[in-house]
Design a protein that fits this description.
heterodimer, A: 102 residues, alpha+beta, 3-stranded antiparallel sheet, B: 222 residues, alpha/beta, Rossmann fold, 9-stranded mixed sheet, globular
């Protein structure tokens, strides 16, 4: 289940991934578990983090720049991780793709 | 010397670090993560543990605690700062030391007595050791894999900033078997193994770790 929230509240998403050259033991563990569960064909798994930020007021360029600074300062460690910042403005669309079909 | 030992929420080895300081004939001063001053200490130890529950990344939250603002400023002025295990992670997150610590490559927590070679005996924390000294101290970590890009690793090796290296097998996937590093000035040292658990033979594998704490005074007297 995703947390319901008011339509139109701007949500900024920061995705953080280990740099390609950095070993990702957690991703390796997942990769190892998949064939044991009968899932075949996956050749690599990288595990990252997703941060969903709800922001008060308008989503201006200034606000997004601040989020980038947050991502660079706290949410990621630039020595070992890359990040991307994106904006989700259609919560309904998120609802439809999230969670199991039960 | 007055040696401050910082306690963060989730620190485990602060009391052992304080004891090691006293065994080495220094005065231990308890510092709190919320403190805004260092209470006049001459050196600081960031102890092992799981500060702030290791949330986000190990050391990522602690690095922004009030006391760390003071520690970072003092370190830049040349104050000796030793980070052990979680303290090493905090120093890397603070960018006082290069590189980062990631999850052990074998994905298991490791806890054992670890042989090390002291590679640099000119830092503020290692001058008690003979060059190339081999010591045994406890190692216990889940995220102790030291990583940095190849250029940084080459620079660390070239400038003698590798302080200690693992012997008898690499316990956690650290690149080039690096167990500890120092900054260019030699006052800030980060170490994944735990010298503070090897200062009395009753409670550790020996007293090989004591040199980290006695180094402080010898340097001052020299």
């Amino acid at each position: 289940m995703t947390t319901p929230y008011t339509c139109g509240v701007p949500r900024v998403v920061v995705d953080v991934m280990p740099k390609p050259e950095i070993l990702d033991p957690q991703g390796k563990a997942v990769l190892g578990a998949l064939p044991r569960l009968g899932f075949s064909g996956v050749t690599d798994v990288r595990q990252g983090k997703r941060f969903e930020l709800e922001v008060a007021g308008e989503l201006t360029d200034e606000v997004l720049e601040q989020v980038r600074q947050m991502a660079e300062t706290l949410l990621s460690n630039p020595v070992i991780e890359d990040f991307t910042v994106s904006v989700e403005t259609t919560p309904d669309a998120v609802e439809t793709v999230a969670g199991p079909a039960s | 010397m007055k040696v401050g030992v910082v306690t963060f929420p989730g620190s485990l080895d602060d009391v052992d670090a304080q004891r090691a300081v006293r065994v080495a004939d220094h005065e231990a001063v308890a510092l709190w993560h919320g403190d805004h001053d260092l209470c006049g200490v001459d050196a600081v130890i960031l102890p092992g543990g799981f500060s702030y529950g290791d949330y986000l990344r190990c050391g990522a939250i602690s690095r922004f605690s009030p006391v760390m603002a003071e520690v970072i400023e003092a370190a830049r002025r040349g104050m000796p700062v030793l980070g052990i295990c979680n303290g090493f992670q905090i120093l890397c997150e603070s960018h006082l030391l290069p590189g980062a610590l990631i999850r052990n490559d074998h994905r298991k927590f490791v806890c054992r007595d670890q042989r090390l070679r002291i590679e640099n005996t000119s830092t503020r924390w290692t001058s008690s050791y003979a060059p190339g000294a081999e010591i045994t101290v406890p190692l216990k970590n889940g995220e102790g894999g030291f990583v940095a890009d190849a250029e940084t690793l080459d620079r660390l090796e070239g400038e003698g900033q590798v302080v200690a290296r693992y012997l008898d097998g690499n316990p956690n996937g650290s690149l080039r078997d690096i167990a500890g590093v120092t900054n260019a000035r030699g006052n800030v040292v980060g170490l994944m193994p735990h010298p503070e658990h090897a200062v009395e033979s009753l409670t550790g594998p020996g007293t090989d770790g004591l040199g980290f704490f006695t180094s402080l005074v010898e340097r001052v007297l020299a």
